[in-house]
Amino acid sequence: MLDIKITKNPVPKAKPADESKLGFGKIFSDHMFLMDYTDGRGWHDPRIVPYAPIPMDPATVVFHYAQELFEGMKAYRSVDNVIQLFRPECNAQRMQDSSDRMCIPQVPVEDFVQAVKTLVELEKDWVPHSDGTSLYIRPFVFATDVGLGVHASKHYTFCVICAPSGAYYAEGIDPVRIYVEDEYIRAAPGLTGFTKCGGNYAASIKAGEEAERKGFAQVLWLDGVEKKYVEEVGSMNILFKIDGKIYTAACTGTVLPGVTRRSCIELLRDWGYEVIEGPLAIADVMKAGREGKLEEVFGTGTAAVVSPVKELDWKEDKVFINDGKIGPVTQKLYDTMTGMQWGKIPDTKGWIVPVCKG
Ligand SMILES: *Cc1c(COP(=O)(O)O)cnc(C)c1O
Question: 171-203: buried (b, 16+ CB within 10 Å) or exposed (e) per residue?
């Protein structure tokens, strides 16, 4: 157990008056969690302090060599007014799994979860009330050695901040157009695709911007070696329902192991669907589309839960999915996941972790 020292903000900010204008990650709560790491001493000084800038030397390692990792999760206000988390230990475990690749010391799973729960309980009034809203939680860890030599840092900071965020589908679920990226790649074997490191995002921004300019919501990344197999979309995993079966890329190093992906696969298998995790060629996806066998395509991630896809464009080829409407399996996954998260249906999977009374 961490002994977390809490220093309350003497001048709490006003809570956002209009929850319909929250957006995503634009405003932040009153406090943040911090804990430091020093080589030889380990993690120390766990504390919650008023949300504030973190002063850093311009030569700090993270600014130059991007030695850092982040996580993304949410706290929900249930219909019974309980503040609750969704599988927080999965995020803690994923940050551990990524830490080794980035030479970042691991934060113990129970300490990560305790830090998040303690901060969320303190910030419970920041969890918005309207349908579909949540408190987005952003844990992150970064190297704080000062100096320009390229090496594993001896000092780190683990920080958790919270941002009340609006309903992702404020205007209703709207299927999106996806551009299959044929030039840039996001990941390759041996690289950092399976980690939530900022560098993956820095390298992906250009493709996202170009796709957006062409009128697409996201890019679909192909494998980095042959540009032949589907991997994931933007910041979501992607699943395809073809002729009754569900296909998605396996998490073998180049794909981010999403908590939503994993949860959807578990539900789909419970419901009797065959889910195949393995290589799926984009050519076969397009062919299934032309033959009318591409029944549903959807992204999965914490932000949107599921994001139905209505169109895929690959080189000169286009396919349209389910007449631009959300498919029944996608809808059922959305209803089940969000139902559990907001306490509208029983949590039959043991995925919900209550934090406190709202
Ligand atoms: C965070 C993320 C996902 C989705 O993960 P969840 O745990 O479901 O939110 C998928 N792909 C990438 C690249 C991501 O960064």
Answer: eebebbbbbbbeebbbbeeebbbbbbbbbbeee
